[in-house]
Amino acid sequence: MKTVTVDYGLYSVIEETAKSLYIKALKDLPPDVRQALQNAYEIEEEENPKKILSTMLEAIKISDNKQCLLCQDTGIPLYFIKIGSRLNIDIPRLQKAIIRGTERATVEHPLRSSVCHPIKRTNHQTSTGYRIPLINLDFVEDGDNLEILMVPKGSGSENMSFLKMLIPAEGIRGVKKFIIDSVLEAGANPCPPFVIGVGLGGTSDLCVKLAKLAAVTRPLDSRHEDPDIAALEEELLEAVNQLGIGPMGLGGKTTALALNIEYAYTHITQNPVAVNIQCWPARRARAKIDVNGKVEFGY
Amino acid sequence: MAEYRLTTPLSEEEVRKLKIGDTVFLEGTIFGIRDANLIRIFENNVPPPVDFTGAACIHTAPNVRKVNGGYEKVCIGTTTSSRMDRFTPGLMGKYGVRAIIGKAGMMEASMEAMKKYGGCYLAIVGGAASWETEKIQAIEGVWWEDLMPEAIWKFRVKDFGPLIVAMDAEGNNMYYQIKARAREKLADIYKRLGI
């Protein structure tokens, strides 16, 4: 197999890209999210939810025109990285470049730093700290690109996260009930209409991670490739919207813009389910860096 | 559902007229408050440095830029209100606050205070900080800068809305009503899902 040796200059490209992605994610909402909000506005009939959705659409327009942040919560910075297997890349150096890019976005833009020590509550004002930003590494067979997906995860929605280690006897019925009950409990807090991420199977930690992946990495108009999972996504999305929590929890037809599921095999004695919620500004920004350091931005 | 255009400071009479579902647009000034400054007022017993009589207070910690001794807005958005529930009785009863502007609603302590003193909760669209920043004309004052960004802020506003009355002085709470309605639908939803 051919190995591509990465030029030293690539790490400064990665740093610049990590910086740009954080700022871009906070300002430029992905097209699928815009479309989902527009669709929600169009099907809504009542006055108050219509007013709320129209304010959201107006806020997106203002961010576009003024190049300003859509939401004040800069969140916890998450980076999902896919490394092509043909790239001979120095992982610690890659991680350092991502951290440095996050710090520079926060200081140079400047952005509000929302990251602090869990006990002392001290804030370095850099959006970084021990183990933060969260950097997820993944590897792609035969690839020679580096893909970076950046997600600022806001707190209003993240505070509404749920995990339950059900038993096998509770089956899919227990899973469905837990999802509906969690969404009802979350109510207005995660800024509906939100995106619901569901994790099924795995271990407790993997299950929560799968829910996060489902909530923040997938385009809203995507369906799972497994037809059984896709059908479950559709069935549960419809059920959630029947709750009538509506935009900002003040009633209406759209409580969730999307419901995505990611699963993993689990233990014969386990049946874990997790729910992670993403707020209506479902922010994300993506970049692909090729071996020559050329960067292509997307969502 | 009525629409009101109100100027601050707000009187008890005009706030008691508001019913859940109504829309309000504010003109005048609103005060930015949040966890740290409320803890100082109520847990460290330091009286607020400004007169809150008839005030509308918004739950925020803005992103600002310092210019010529003052502050310029960068990004002002609203945070989840439920963390501040325990402070509403003091704000309304002791200091005369009439309206709380926030997102996702408040609970029993606030509902009781609103009933007793004539107060309301005005829901703003959370996450729409670009829109909110545009609606705020200027930062007119700041107190307790040591708590930055959770200082006390004074913003000048005009045409500040639509804000939806989500909790009124009669003790009605729209969030509770919507959740209660959702609970009524649960049996039917479970049935369809085969639960």
Count all strands of chain A and give the number.
Answer: 11
Strands side by side in the biggest sheet of chain B: 2-3-6-7-9
Strand content of chain A: 15-25%
Average pLDDT score of chain A = 96
Mean pLDDT of chain B: 96
The most extensive contact between chains is: A-B, 49 and 48 residues
Cα-to-Cα separation, first versus last residue of chain B:
38 Å
Q: Report low-confidence residues of chain A grouped into runs of 5 or more.
A: none
User: Looking at CATH, which topology of chain B would you report?
Assistant: fumarase
Fraction in helix of chain B:
25-40%
What is the domain tally of chain B? Answer: 1
Q: Please give the CATH architecture of chain B.
A: Alpha-Beta Barrel
Low-confidence stretches of chain B: none
Order of helices and strands of chain B: EHEHEEEHEHEHEEH
Oligomeric form: heterodimer
Largest pleated sheet of chain B: 5 strands, mixed, barrel
- Per the CATH scheme, the topology name of the largest domain in chain A is 60s Ribosomal Protein L30, Chain: A
Radius of gyration of chain B: 17 Å
For the biggest sheet of chain A, the summary is: 5 strands, mixed
Based on the model shown, name its key terms:
heterodimer; A: 299 residues; alpha/beta; 60s Ribosomal Protein L30, Chain: A; 2 domains; 5-stranded mixed β-sheet; 8 helices; B: 195 residues; fumarase; 5-stranded mixed beta barrel; 6 helices; 29% helix; Fe-S_hydro-lyase_TtdA-typ_cat (chain A); iron-sulfur (chain A); Fe-S type, tartrate/fumarate subfamily hydro-lyase subunit alpha (chain A); Class-I_Fumarase/Tartrate_DH (chain A)
Can you walk me through this structure?
Chain A: Belongs to the class-I fumarase family. Chain A: One of its GO terms (molecular function) is 4 iron, 4 sulfur cluster binding. Chain A: Residues 16-287 form the Fe-S hydro-lyase tartrate dehydratase alpha-type catalytic domain. Chain A: Keywords: 4Fe-4S, Iron, Iron-sulfur, Lyase, Metal-binding. The complex is a heterodimer of chains A (299) and B (195). Chain A is α/β, with parallel strands linked by helices. Chain A has 2 domains: 4-26 and 70-154 and 283-298, 60s Ribosomal Protein L30, Chain: A (2-Layer Sandwich), CATH 3.30.1330; 156-278, no CATH class. Chain A is built from 8 helices and 11 strands. In chain A, strands 4-2-5-10-11 form a 5-stranded mixed beta sheet. In chain A, α1 (10-27) crosses α4 and α2 runs antiparallel to α3 (47-66). Chain B is an alpha/beta fold and 195 residues long. Chain B has one domain: fumarase (Alpha-Beta Barrel), CATH 3.20.130. Chain B is built from 6 helices and 9 strands. Chain B has helices at residues 12-17, 35-42, 88-93, 108-117, 129-135, 174-192, and strands spanning 3-7, 23-33, 56-59, 63-67, 70-75, 99-102, 120-123, 136-143, 152-167. In chain B, strands 2-3-6-7-9 form a 5-stranded mixed β-barrel. In chain B, strands 4-5 form a two-stranded antiparallel ribbon. The radius of gyration of chain B is 17 Å and the shape is globular. The interface between A and B is large, with 49 and 48 residues.
